[in-house]
Design brief:
The complex is a heterodimer.
Chain A lengths: L3 E6 L3 H4 L4 H8 L5 E7 L5 H13 L4 E6 L2 H14 L7 E5 L1 H5 L5 H19 L8 E4 L3 E5 L3 H12 L3 E5 L14 E2 L4 E2 H14 L3 E4 L2 E9 L2 E8 L14 H5 L5 E2 L8 E2 L2 E2 L11 E2 L5 H5 L4 H5 L12 E7 L1 E4 L3 E3 L25 E3 H8 L20 E8 L15 H15 L4 E6 L9 H10 L4 E4 L2 E7 L2 E8 L4 E7 L1 E6 L1 E3 L3 H8 L26 E3 L9 H19 L3 E4 L4 E3 L9 H5 L5 E7 L5 E8 L9 H5 L5 E3 L4 H9 L3
Parallel strand pairs in A: 1-2, 1-3, 3-4, 6-7, 6-18, 7-10, 18-29, 20-27, 21-22, 21-27, 22-23
Antiparallel strand pairs in A: 5-30, 8-9, 11-12, 12-17, 13-14, 15-16, 19-28, 24-25, 25-26, 31-34, 32-33
Helix pairs in contact in A: 2-6, 3-4, 6-19, 7-8, 7-16, 12-13, 13-14
Chain B lengths: L10 E6 L3 H10 L8 E6 L7 H9 L4 E6 L10 H18 L7 E5 L5 H18 L3 H12 L1
Parallel strand pairs in B: 1-2, 1-3, 3-4
Classes of the chains: A alpha/beta, B alpha/beta.
Chain lengths: 666, 148
């Protein structure tokens, strides 16, 4: 026989003003199963909770209804209090008579009547509640980090330093990401490679880090604490174990004309190559599409030169599996493709800027390579078309960003800062040159950021024009930039030698596919969704999967690094326990009744339902049934609604509970 | 005041825990008044709601039913709200065949930030249902069936 205690909160005057709490208590006291019903000024206060605990013991309660505020506010509080009194916390329910009643209905009699009904619904529900136990899940204390840019590097190093094993997967032949290609960084102008490459070496040498470069995620199965990732290690045609990275092969390679992706096609590389000198691992790969051995069956010079015998023309892709407890996504960004039709199909890029037509119209990452000491011009600023030093350079910000017509409404956040940096770097190398910037607004929020932009303008003489550029044409070896200066209120034409476009930041290619493999949400722009923008900024709605860096939204290096360290903290917290504890309000299958139609398997958004077989002792198949994986189920209940035989139910929101609630209504 | 205004339509609202329930909470925090005859049933997700629950609501005397969850793309559980929508497309003809008055079934997307929208939706449903009058037909059939 149920013995339910109903505790009605006054919430000071918040509830009591519009709801006659004493009358409500008197009315619900007679409901079937109710052992006691009383009102108290503040149920969530310490005396309120002790009152509840005392009553649980005195009245030998088998269930509790607290009628007060929203369960989002205090359900956890009251469940905890019940647990302290020895009552299973899942036998506590709330009736929301504040947000849903006293605050929105000013007619006292109507509000009181509604409060009574809400309590009656909750009593009907709790009579059908079952004691539930938190689900314990074992944890594999090993993390997978996807993406080896600065965010992935930081996360991997921090997790590894905390004493846990890390597998770091990078698509390119070397880790380093976008940051490895930058020249200097704002607002300090310290050399990007000088700060990043030592950390890359740390990753390469860390005893807790296994590096999978030139590799991609093929598949991910499992659930929080127990993921199994299949990684495709692409054929390098070089035996990494034997190779010493001496460089004989790439120095002797006769195929030298492949545009270097690391230099954003501003320079060339050989067919066997390391993307940049400080690559980690410092081991080359062979580009099949450029190698004469693969194209014509000839050459093989690298194999002849290699004293270690590391060249392996018969190398194949390999699939390796990593069993991990947590997954960190740090896949970073790419630039908006300026001249071309965009991948989302409804935007057309900026054909009017001549990007891709004139070699002297470049994007900001290309400019980084042009100023970088390790770049194709060894740091001398020479324009791509004829190698001349440009005397007038026009920088255009917001190319793509904040332009709904081009499909991107957001601000890319970092462009104002790096454009200011570009004008400074340019001025420091070309003293008699003039930098012009077309901008919409200058957004320089950050420590020492606005000061930095002021310096670019006041000390290094960059000319800032507020306005947009409408067209860039070529005339006599110059680029004619036609725009408008909206502050002066007149059109402005500048004859430039080089134009640099600050293109919008977009998530890396194919991140949607990865997100789907991981069951992580993403927004309309393809940026991965965090669990809560303020309170859970690095967790995702897929338990055990975390995000950091620009894959989650545009951000600069300090923010990416901070977020990566935050992720490492979260992973370390998860790994500090032997087992994870999960909310038990999840689906379960009545395997006797299940007709094995597997409609639930198809409906489940988490792939949490498996096709199982029940066999007798001899191994003969008795029946097939659906079975819920407790680690994967998030408790949405979509399966319950699709099950034709009602063989699957959701603890905490079971058919019986919901029907009892509806039936209790008068 | 006309007579029809005295009729307080009973509305059963099946709402998801993450968007609409919080939207209704916000309406409370902002003290946005709306008809008191709505009864909220909190479910994890609109994907949890099958049409039996809608029929059940009418059986127990509801004059209108609301199903409300997250906006498309916002589902806490990735896609439950799409399931709810698809299911509705399938079941509408079936409910019509059962001669259930589908004008009394309402769907909406109300986010956790849309307290104002919650107030509007409930007020509109109440007004519309008041025009339709009490839903006695279905209840009478149910009663007749149970007395057989």
């Amino acid at each position: 026989m149920a013995r339910i205690g109903v505790f009605i909160c006054w919430c000071g005057e918040n509830i009591a003003r519009n709801v006659d709490v004493e009358q409500a208590a008197a009315e619900v006291a007679d409901l079937p199963g109710v052992a006691c019903a009383l009102a108290y000024k503040y149920m969530c206060s310490d005396p309120g909770q002790s009152l509840m605990r005392r009553k649980i013991a005195e009245e030998r309660l088998t269930g509790v209804v607290v009628a007060s505020c929203s369960p989002h506010m205090h359900l956890r509080t009251f469940r905890k209090a019940a647990a302290m009194a020895g009552l299973n916390p899942y036998l506590v329910e709330m009736a929301n008579i504040r947000e849903h009643c006293s605050w929105v209905h000013h007619d006292r009699s109507q509000a009181t009547r509604k409060a009574v009904e809400l309590i009656r619904m909750s009593v009907a529900k709790v009579r059908n509640n079952h004691a539930l136990q938190p689900i314990a899940i074992p944890v594999t204390r090993r993390a997978l980090v996807i993406g080896g840019g600065v965010a992935g590097i930081q996360a991997a190093l921090d997790i590894a330093d905390a004493g846990y094993q890390v597998a770091l997967v990078e698509r390119e032949p070397s880790i380093g990401g976008k940051m490895a290609g930058l020249s200097e960084t704002f607002p300090t102008l310290d050399c990007s490679q000088c700060i990043l490459t030592p950390r890359m070496v740390d990753v390469g040498q860390h005893p807790n880090i296994t590096l999978h470069t030139y590799s991609e995620i093929e598949a991910v199965e499992g659930y929080v604490g127990n993921f199994k990732a299949t990684i495709r290690k692409k054929a390098r045609y070089v035996d990494v174990a034997k190779c010493t990275g001496c460089g004989q092969c790439w120095n002797s390679c006769p195929s030298k004309k492949t545009p270097s992706a690391f230099d954003y096609n501003m320079g060339n590389r050989t067919a066997i190559y390391v993307p940049f000198p400080q690559a980690v691992p410092a081991r080359p790969v062979i580009d099949r599409n450029a190698c004469l051995h693969f194209l014509k069956g000839k050459c093989g010079l690298c194999a002849k030169k290699c004293q270690a015998g590391a060249i392996r023309f018969d190398d194949q892709d390999q699939l390796v599996t990593e069993e991990v407890g947590a997954i960190v996504v740090a896949t970073g960004f790419q630039l908006y493709s300026i001249g071309k039709e965009q991948t989302n199909g409804h935007t057309i890029g900026y054909g009017e800027y001549g990007y891709g037509q004139s070699p002297d119209v470049i994007d900001s990452l290309q400019f980084e390579r042009l100023v970088s000491a390790s770049g194709p011009t060894n740091g001398e600023i020479r324009r791509p078309s004829d190698g001349k030093v440009p005397k007038t350079v026009v920088f255009i910000s917001c190319v793509g960003s904040r332009d709904n017509a081009k499909g991107i409404s957001y601000c890319s956040k970092i462009c104002c800062m790096y454009t200011a940096k570009h004008t400074m770097l340019y001025k420091h190398k070309v003293h008699d040159g003039q930098a012009h910037v077309f901008y919409m607004d200058i957004r320089a929020g950050g420590k020492n950021y606005d000061e930095f932009v002021r310096r670019a303008i006041e000390q290094d003489g960059a000319q800032y024009h507020r306005g947009r550029v409408s067209k860039i044409t070529q005339e006599n070896g110059h680029l004619i930039v036609r725009g408008v200066d909206t502050l002066a209120g007149e059109p402005l034409t500048i004859e430039a030698d080089l134009v640099v476009l600050a293109a919008a930041m977009r998530p890396a290619d194919h991140v949607e596919e990865l997100a789907q493999k991981l069951n992580v949400g993403y927004d309309e722009n393809g940026f991965l969704s965090e669990s809560h923008p303020k309170l859970r900024p690095v967790e995702t709605n897929a338990a055990g999967v975390f995000v950091c860096g620009a894959c989650q939204g545009p951000k600069d290096i300090p923010e990416s690094v901070a977020q990566a360290s935050a992720v490492a903290g979260k992973v370390a917290i998860m790994f500090s326990r032997e087992e994870l504890s999960r909310e038990p309000e999840i689906a379960k299958v009545n395997e006797t009744n299940c007709a094995a139609c597997f409609a639930c398997v198809r409906a489940c958004p988490y792939n949490a339902i498996e096709r199982a077989e029940i066999r007798d002792r001899k191994g003969n198949l008795v029946k097939r049934t659906a079975r819920v994986n407790q680690g994967l189920c998030m408790g949405c209940g979509t399966c319950v609604a699709v099950c034709p035989s009602k063989s699957i139910d959701l603890d905490g929101f079971s058919e019986q509970q919901i029907y009892a609630m509806v039936e209790s209504l008068e | 005041m006309s007579d029809s205004n005295d009729f307080q339509p009973k509305i059963i609202a099946y709402v998801c825990n993450w968007c609409t329930y919080l939207g209704a909470d916000l309406a409370g925090t902002n003290r946005l008044e709306y008809p008191a005859s709505v009864r909220i049933v909190r479910l994890p997700c609109t994907g949890r709601i099958d049409f039996n629950l809608i029929v059940k609501a009418f059986e127990t005397g509801a004059d209108a039913v609301l199903v409300s969850g997250c906006h498309p793309g916002d589902c806490h559980y990735t896609a439950g709200n799409y399931h709810a929508r698809r299911r509705w497309m399938l079941f509408r003809p079936l409910l019509e065949a059962l001669e259930i008055d589908t004008r009394r079934i309402h769907f909406s997307w109300i986010s956790a930030a849309e307290g104002k929208k919650w107030q509007q939706v409930i007020t509109e449903i109440a007004d519309k249902t008041r025009e339709l009058g009490p839903y006695s037909d279905y209840r009478e059939i149910c009663q007749a069936e149970s007395e057989k």
